[in-house]
Amino acid sequence: MKYVKELSNRNKIVSDSTCEAISEQKNPAYTIKFVFSGTEECMIHKRKLSIYPDSFAMLNAGTTYSSKIDSLTPVNTFSISFEEKFLQDFQQNISGSTAQLLDQKEPSLRPDFIESLYPFTGNMRYNIMHLKNQLDRGLNDEMLINEYLHHCLLNYHSIYNKEVLQKMERLSFMKSKTKQEVLKRLTLAKEYINSNYNQHILLENIADHACLSVNHLLRTFKEAYEISPYQYLVQLRLARAKKLLQNTTYPLHEIVGLVGFECPSSFIRLFKSTFNITPAKYKRMKTA
Fold first, then answer.
1. C-beta separation of 114 from 184 below 8 A
2. Which residues, 6 or more positions from 3, have their beta carbon under 8 angstroms from its beta carbon?
3. How many domains does the chain have?
4. Residues 206-231: tens digit of each pLDDT
5. Which residues span the domain enclosing 203?
6. 219: buried, middle or exposed (CB in 10 Å: 19+, 13-18, 0-12)?
7. DSSP state letters, 227-250
8. Coil, helix or strand for 102?
């Protein structure tokens, strides 16, 4: 369902469904972009972010980006743009002391997030899917909608702590600035894997994209994420294959190629060892 809902506080929600779209724009507000089916390709500062249903993207205000959708079936997108004062107020309430909150002073710092892909799971998925279902049914209560948006920011804050701050602390560097810089480069590595998981990827490709040496990439990636880049790639391919088995009519041999595996037998072995069921049995169970 396509609609644009702009609230009186200038928070805005856009829902769309299309097979083909190309746009280039300067993002006017802090925006979280979701995709419920299909893929949306975004280019941000010459970085490609492929947004799938298992991830979402965070964009800062003022970011120039391009977006492309090219699909045989409709791609369902959903975005939330937060007015800066609403977001600043949230940030102040999360990080400020009780005395600061009672002072009710105007926040002075402009929020700045790591623009990247984040996992669309858990409470974030539950909250956003519930909000979309309500809006699709005609919800117009701004107080309730803003509560949903507040919980969206709470969920993002939790995800940010887990995906950025906690992983930063695992890195074995003394200086905080070094940890921040290395994690930013590791984020580029993850983005590259997420956006090219169905292609033939070399470690050198990932390392070059992240501006790290191969050995530096291997060591720091394992420190931050507790798995190797190869293990991360395999997990991602298996998760995407699972979704295709569940939601499409593609035959197994096509799904193997679509997610980047070259050998059907190794895919079947990895799928069974990971999910304790063969791909064929999983597909029959989900489509029965």
1. yes
2. 14, 15, 135
3. 3
4. 999 999 999 999 999 999 999 999 99
5. 174-226
6. middle
7. S-HHHHHHHHHHHHHHHHHHH---
8. helix
Domain annotation covers residue 138: no
CATH number at residue 84: 2.60.120.10
pTM above 0.85, yes or no: yes
**Confidence class of residue 112 from pLDDT cuts 50, 70 and 90?**
confident
Amino acid residing at 53 = P
Do residues 212 and 252 both lie within one domain? no
Which two structure tokens, joined as six digits, stand for 27?
A: 């993002």
Whether the CB-CB separation of 163 and 117 falls below 8 Å is answered with no
Which band of pLDDT confidence, cut at 50, 70 and 90, is reported for residue 242? very high
Residue 4 half-sphere exposure toward CB, CA atoms < 13 A: 3
Residue 274 DSSP symbol: H
Nearest to 187 by CA among 217, 159, 214: 217
Report pLDDT digits (tens) over 12-61.
999 999 999 999 989 889 999 999 999 999 999 888 999 999 999 999 99
Here the tokens at position 38 are: 């299909």
Contact 48, 195 (CB under 8 A): yes
Residue written as token pair 């191969």: 214
Query: Coil, helix or strand for 79?
Result: strand
Q: Does 47 map to a domain?
A: yes
